[in-house]
């Protein structure tokens, strides 16, 4: 059957190798920076600090009132000999510098192997970058150190090539092999706000994979429609547990299959926020996955979840959007005409043709992975 094997998905565990170290690590946190801050002359240049701010910045952010190098005195607080006051000012500066002046924090810490390749100083600032985006949109979207080339998102070919395999969330580190994130840190940030859809940039390897599958799966006589946008669907562990359990029970093999559906909102057009309508099919699928119990009972092969390996077949049921799903077929029966064999986990009609339909009778056999929006 012309089913596509499902590549490793972002809900699998990524390697911790590329993770941002936790903010509590001493070589990334206040203890190390405390030793450098005594040498920093605020409002001007640096002295005795590994590296200096980029030329386009003449100063660093203004600290809270009462700060002087080597001490911190705020209203109602006496100067202390301990390092604790230093930690307060360092926490303030670190969160501001690595977001507002993306290159400063890594330059200060470039001697520390754990952070020298990052544009933020730790998990807290990485999460801020992922959620809010960079403060300076004129800079390269990958390295955040050089200006974009006019009409492009990156500063040059090197960063443009790296952006093709970048983590779909932070976009500043390479994704971990076949996974869609660079590691557990970005996966953890993404799954805090599920269901979530992340737009994939054109030219990214994940975008190309989905687009190529769509085109090669088009078996209709007319040319395939133009894809406007592709999104990675992010779900939490509870959403995926029933699917994983079903997969272990009936067999490990996964396939990619399409499902055409409708929307009553602007999801995938002008927003990535799911609507609250109880009748918006796409948003409700993303919230609860597919439900056999609300399927059309008059379907050709009974009440079930209808999918297809032929993108043209699924597109015929779509209204602006369709889903590419990972599916566990289990024990497959062959349907012919309008007869539907019983006793199978799923049935397939016209397995290699333009009218292919694969019907699932179990909710846990399918989960949405990518959302495709059309012009």
TrEMBL record:
Q: Name one GO molecular function term.
A: NAD+ poly-ADP-ribosyltransferase activity
Q: Report the residue ranges that make up the PARP catalytic domain in this protein.
A: 207-332
InterPro entries reported for this sequence:
Poly(ADP-ribose)pol_cat_dom
What's the protein name? PARP catalytic domain-containing protein
């Amino acid at each position: 059957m012309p089913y596509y094997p499902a590549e490793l998905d972002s809900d699998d565990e990524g390697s911790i190798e590329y993770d941002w170290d936790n903010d509590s690590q001493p070589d990334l946190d206040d203890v190390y920076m405390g030793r450098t801050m005594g040498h920093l002359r605020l409002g001007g240049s640096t002295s005795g600090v590994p590296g200096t701010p980029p030329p386009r910045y003449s100063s660093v952010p203004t600290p809270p009132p009462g700060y002087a190098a080597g001490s911190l005195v705020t209203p109602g607080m006496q100067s202390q000999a301990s390092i604790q006051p230093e930690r307060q000012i360092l926490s303030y500066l670190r969160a501001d510098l690595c977001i507002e002046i993306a290159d400063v924090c890594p330059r200060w810490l470039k001697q520390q192997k754990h952070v020298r390749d990052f544009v933020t100083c730790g998990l807290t600032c990485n999460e801020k970058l992922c959620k809010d985006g960079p403060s300076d949109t004129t800079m390269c979207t990958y390295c955040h150190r050089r200006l974009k080339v006019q009409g492009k998102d990156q500063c040059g070919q090197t960063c443009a090539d790296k952006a093709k395999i970048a983590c779909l969330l932070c976009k500043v580190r390479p994704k971990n092999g076949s996974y869609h994130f660079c590691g557990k840190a970005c996966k953890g940030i993404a799954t805090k706000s599920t269901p979530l859809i992340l737009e994939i940039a054109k030219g990214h390897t994940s975008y190309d994979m989905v687009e190529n599958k769509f085109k090669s799966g088009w078996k209709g006589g007319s040319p395939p429609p133009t894809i406007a946008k592709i999104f990675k669907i992010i779900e939490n562990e509870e959403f995926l547990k029933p699917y994983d359990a079903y997969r272990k029970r009936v067999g490990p093999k996964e396939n990619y299959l399409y499902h055409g559906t409708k929307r009553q909102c602007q999801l995938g057009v002008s927003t990535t926020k799911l609507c609250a309508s109880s009748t918006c099919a796409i948003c409700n699928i993303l919230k609860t996955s597919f439900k056999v119990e609300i399927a059309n009972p008059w379907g050709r092969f009974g009440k079930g979840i209808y999918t297809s390996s032929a993108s043209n077949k699924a597109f015929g049921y779509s209204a602006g959007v369709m889903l590419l799903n990972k599916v566990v077929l289990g024990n497959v029966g062959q349907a012919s005409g309008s007869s539907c064999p019983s006793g199978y986990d799923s049935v397939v009609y016209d397995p290699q043709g333009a009218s292919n339909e694969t019907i699932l009778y179990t909710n846990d056999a399918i989960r949405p992975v990518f959302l495709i929006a059309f012009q």
